[in-house]
Amino acid sequence: MAAKALCCGTRLDTGQNPDLADVVNRGMKKILIVYYSRTGYTRHAAETLAVLASADLEPISENRTRKGIVEFFRSAIEAYIARPANIRTARLTPGAYDLVIFGTPVWAGRISSPMLGYLKAHKYQVGRYGVFCTVGGSDGAVALAQFQDLIGKPAAAELILTDKEIDVGKHKLLIERFVERLNDSDTTQTEAGK
Ligand SMILES: Cc1cc2nc3c(=O)[nH]c(=O)nc-3n(C[C@H](O)[C@H](O)[C@H](O)COP(=O)(O)O)c2cc1C
Question: What is the mean pLDDT of the chain?
Answer without folding.
Answer: 88
